[in-house]
Design brief:
Elements (H helix, E strand, L loop, with lengths): L13 H15 L5 E6 L6 H14 L3 E6 L10 H7 L11 H10 L10 H16 L4 E6 L6 H11 L7 E7 L14 E2 L5 H11 L5 H11 L3 H6 L6 H4 L11 H14 L3 H13 L19 H9 L3 E3 L5 E3 L2 H10 L2 H14 L5 H10 L5 H16 L3 H13 L4 H17 L3 H11 L9 H16 L3 H15 L7 H18 L2 H9 L6 H11 L1 H4 L3 H15 L5 H11 L4 H5 L7 H17 L6 H14 L2 H17 L3 H17 L3 H17 L3 H11 L16 H10 L3 H13 L7 H14 L2 H12 L8 H17 L3 H18 L2 H18 L11 H11 L4 H8 L3 H15 L7 H4 L15
Helix pairs in contact: 1-2, 3-6, 4-5, 5-6, 11-14, 12-13, 12-14, 12-15, 15-16, 16-17, 17-18, 18-19, 19-20, 19-21, 20-21, 21-22, 21-23, 22-23, 23-24, 23-25, 25-27, 25-28, 27-28, 28-30, 30-31, 30-32, 31-32, 32-33, 32-34, 33-34, 34-35, 35-36, 36-37, 36-38, 37-38, 38-39, 38-40, 40-41, 40-42, 41-42, ...
Length: 920
């Protein structure tokens, strides 16, 4: 689907047009909203698709909101969001006061800071919802790869939540870079046009082209519409008419930019200057307007005519130059000299009001050397932006401020803040480069603690190295908390947290000793985080209850200030529930969103949402691309949980081979111990109980709970199972006694369930029924899907050995269904083996009803009611012969030989009481 200048007809892109047409129709008919991301190379037709969608929506009465990213304005936080919402801002008075304040604060329309990152997204959503009640909405965002990261985060927030509104959102961006990192939907990739579509476009745009020339142009263009439009226009008449051979082929991207550059060089000086000013102004600016001439000056025709004649840009109804394609803007900027760029930036700065943040950026770009006053203004602006949640944009301003600094110490101070902001904002590789640059010279004493924090941040997250955490942070904390030191509570808290991370991952006693010394200098949330991880059997009593209370207070007060501490505390007690995660609804810095994603991955494993396994692998790839190598390692560890649960030895081995070397170098016992535990879990899945016992025994002595990093509870249940299966009942009893002595059930709901489940397995026969009932009755027991299924498997096996076949079969079937849904094949086989043993012991005819496919089960149930093959086939739209073939496979699975036996062989529906509880 492409068009030339002034051409509204479309060619190709039928699949994409149909998708967008359906989306518009659903919104128009109030059936629901949708979000689509178009991805493709420069010139492939993304903007043309957006224009086509806008035209269709306009005819259907949509409100159309549009924005385009700009390379020149990528440092303006919420700039693209402002473009989208500008037509609706007068309606913001209808928003609740906190939402209005958050939105206007983010957009720079009022002084003050938003109460939390998620509020900006929620406020934008509320404003759009208000408009969608009046008319359906279309939101178009072009050049997503150049949208500032703060706006991109809000667009992602909207992307995830507009399905309930009469709203269609279509974003377009290039495939290179990280613009689409974290977006949940699969983008619609725009590939090359087909040969037929290319020929149709060439016939429309260049009707006199010789056949041989057209074929060669198509070969060179490789299906890129912009190249199809531009290449023939650059050929001499003899080339176009096929009289002389065409020149040799050049790479597509370089060739197109070179074509524009040659065209630019032919422009008069005034036209070139106007084009450069418009290019640097960006699509959202208004300073590049071609204005009416002053008396005595030449008119604008001499500027516009060569620009429009060259097909570079056109004048829109507002008097602004609109470029033919983003590549034209890139070529304009690339071809300008430094002096020309500075002059254009200076011109733009003079046209903007003092308070406009773009003026500051243009002034910085126009500066010819150090300028301390300008550097100070940039630092102030960058700090404001970071406080509003735009860490990545703030870092760019601080870096520019450093470059303009006169005083070397001020330069280091600004670079240090730039490094910290970059790390928080998801630009870790850039932060690492800044840290290396700062290390080349002396660091002023007043900024030394901050620099230590920056070094530790980069070492932990980028280099997967925790040595500097123990060598630098104790001294930095001492300096910041010394009598008379300037108040830097936020930095103390963040250093405390970084040291807690290092200590939890490595178990290094130096870290725990330092943390204990500075506990009184941090917030209650940080202290909760510390005791949840320090030595959980002895320090984490009541941690989950305290966590819940803190989350409730923050949610009620819309306070997300240090919610990341609560997230880490929750990860120690498996308590990252929906209420906590809602506090992070609109956070957009990767430092936070990556932590939320890790919590979601771990919770998905615990709660039986195992379809999320591949999300962990994708998150690992995203983290790797962003330079967060420690996060990538941890995401792969969480992915390994799903593999181990499913008994996938080969997959687990591959993950271990990939992450263990780095974890071992960093002495990350958190990771290596977990890998050992997962190996034991796989061994249990395949019935290698001695192997599992040996691995777990090396991790923890049987008569006590281990000291050190958290999550001791995860292998607790498995050790009891392995000990019992190996005939080491006394060791299993000792482990349960240690859990009770430590009041393990007072730590969290998950701890309580695991202790109760282990107690049931070790109970004497006369107390076992009550012990199993108590385990099932633990509040929230249904949340722990995999472990609950394993408890039912063990319980069913125990019942079967005592001749209680009906009860055993009911439990084993329920466990079987859970394992089958989780695709945990070895556990499915264990259930089958136990079911066969129960049937043999009770003299029941063996069958494998649970092995029936859903289709076979439907057929069997219908036949059991007395229907003939013909009647069943009619009901299921199958032939009688197909029904007969299914029955041929069904009878052996059920251990029967006649239709009359079907009703007795099929399992009934399980009762909704007793041990077959649901998640609470």
């Amino acid at each position: 689907m492409e068009r030339g200048p002034g051409d509204t007809a479309l060619v190709g892109r039928r699949r994409e047009r149909a998708l967008l047409e359906r989306s518009l129709e659903r919104a128009r008919s109030s059936a629901g909203g949708s979000a689509t991301v178009l991805r493709g190379d420069a010139g492939i037709g993304k903007t043309a698709l957006l224009d086509w969608t806008a035209a269709r929506a306009e005819r259907s009465g949509f409100t159309i909101l549009r924005a385009a990213g700009s390379e020149a304005e990528v440092g303006i936080a919420f700039g693209a969001l402002h473009q989208v919402l500008r037509p609706l801002l007068e309606n913001s008075r209808a928003l609740p006061r906190p939402q209005r304040a958050a939105l206007e604060g983010a957009l720079g329309l009022r002084e003050g800071l938003p109460p939390g990152g998620f509020m900006v997204g929620a406020s934008a959503l509320a404003l759009l919802a208000e408009e969608a009640r009046r008319r359906p909405l279309l939101i178009l965002v072009d050049d997503l790869h150049w949208v500032d990261s703060s706006s991109a985060a809000v667009f992602l927030f909207l992307h995830q939540r507009i399905t309930g509104l009469r709203t269609v959102m279509v974003c377009a961006g290039r495939p290179d870079g990280s613009a689409l990192d974290g977006w949940p939907a699969h983008p619609v990739d725009l590939g090359a046009l087909s040969g037929d579509d290319c020929r149709a476009l060439l016939r429309r745009w260049h009707p006199g082209l010789a056949t041989a020339t057209a074929e060669r142009v198509m070969e060179e263009a490789a299906g890129n519409p912009l190249a199809l439009a531009e290449l023939p226009g650059q050929l001499a008449r003899e080339h176009r008419e096929g009289i002389v051979p065409l020149p040799e082929r050049l790479p597509l991207g370089q060739r197109l930019e070179a074509l524009f550059v040659r065209r630019l060089r032919s422009l008069p000086a005034e036209a070139a200057r106007a084009l450069l000013v418009a290019a640097l102004d960006g699509p959202a600016g208004g300073s590049g307007v071609i204005r009416e001439p002053a008396p005595g000056q030449d008119g604008t025709d001499g500027v516009l005519e060569p620009i429009e004649a060259g097909g570079l840009a056109r004048l829109d109804h507002t008097g602004r130059l609109v470029f033919r394609h983003p590549l034209v803007r890139s070529a304009v900027i690339a071809s300008a000299s430094r002096s020309q760029l500075r002059a254009a930036h200076r011109s733009l700065a003079e046209r903007l009001p003092e308070e406009d943040p773009r003026r500051l950026l243009h002034e910085a770009s126009a500066a010819e050397g150090p300028a301390e006053r300008l550097a100070a203004r940039l630092q102030e602006a960058g700090t404001r932006i970071a406080l509003r949640g735009g860490d990545a944009e703030g870092a760019l301003l601080l870096d520019r401020a450093a470059a303009l600094s006169v005083d070397p110490e001020n330069r280091v101070r600004r670079l240090t803040w730039a490094a910290v902001m970059s790390a928080r904002g998801g630009r870790l590789a850039y932060a690492a480069r800044l840290v290396k640059e700062i290390e080349r010279g002396p660091v002023p004493g007043d900024v030394a603690p901050l620099f230590a924090y920056a070094v530790v941040y980069v070492d932990q997250s980028h280099h997967v190295d925790f040595a500097s955490s123990f060598s630098l942070l104790p001294g930095a904390l001492a300096a910041l908390t010394a009598p008379g030191a300037s108040a830097r509570d936020d930095l103390v808290e963040q250093m405390f947290f970084k040291l807690l991370l290092a200590s939890a991952y490595t178990g290094d006693p130096r870290g725990w000793e330092t943390l204990e010394r500075y506990r009184e200098h941090v917030s209650p949330a940080a202290r909760l985080c510390h005791r949840a991880w320090a030595d959980p059997p002895r320090t984490a009593q009541g941690a989950e209850a305290e966590l819940r209370a803190m989350v409730t207070r923050r949610a009620a007060g819309r306070d997300t200030g240090n919610a990341w501490l609560l997230l880490w505390a929750a990860s120690a007690v498996d308590g990252a529930d929906a209420n906590l995660l809602r506090l992070f609804g609109g956070e957009h810095a990767y430092a936070t969103s990556g932590s939320v994603a890790k919590a979601r991955c771990h919770q998905a494993f615990l709660r039986g949402r195992w379809d999320a396994a591949e999300d962990c692998a994708r998150e690992a790839d995203t983290a790797e691309e962003l330079g967060y190598h420690c996060n990538a390692l941890l995401f792969r560890l969480y992915h390994a949980h799903f593999l181990a649960g499913r008994g996938d030895e080969q997959g687990l081995s591959a993950v271990r081979e990939r992450i263990e070397p780095a974890a071992s170098r960093a002495r990350m016992h958190f990771v290596t111990d977990r890998l050992d535990h997962l190996e034991a879990l796989v061994a249990l899945a395949h019935g290698r109980h001695e192997d599992a016992y040996d691995r777990l025994r090396r991790m923890m002595p049987p008569g006590s709970l281990p000291r050190g990093p958290g999550r001791f509870h995860l292998p607790f249940f498995d050790f009891v199972v392995a000990s019992l299966r190996c005939g080491r009942r006394e060791e299993a009893l000792a482990r349960v006694a240690a859990g009770r002595a430590a009041r393990m059930d007072g730590v969290s709901a998950h701890h309580a369930f695991l202790l109760a489940a282990a107690s049931a397995l070790t109970a004497d026969d006369d107390a076992a029924d009550a012990a199993y009932a108590a385990a099932y009755a633990v509040p929230g027991a249904g949340r722990w899907v995999f472990e609950l299924a394993r408890l039912r498997l063990a319980h069913g096996s125990w019942l079967g050995r005592r001749g209680r076949g009906a009860e055993a079969e009911e439990l084993l079937r329920t466990a079987f269904r859970t394992f089958r849904e989780l695709r945990a094949a070895p556990w499915v086989e264990q259930c089958r083996a136990e079911l066969r043993a129960v049937r043999r012991s009770t003299g029941t005819a063996e069958n494998d009803a649970d092995a029936l496919t859903p289709q076979e089960l439907r057929i069997a149930r219908l036949v059991a009611t007395g229907l003939t093959n013909k009647e069943v086939g009619a009901a299921l739209h199958l032939s009688p012969r197909t029904i007969g073939a299914h029955l041929y496979r069904i009878f052996p699975k059920l251990g029967i030989t006649s239709r009359a036996a079907l009703a007795r062989a099929l399992p009934g529906s399980p009762p909704a009481h007793g041990p077959l509880l649901r998640e609470s």
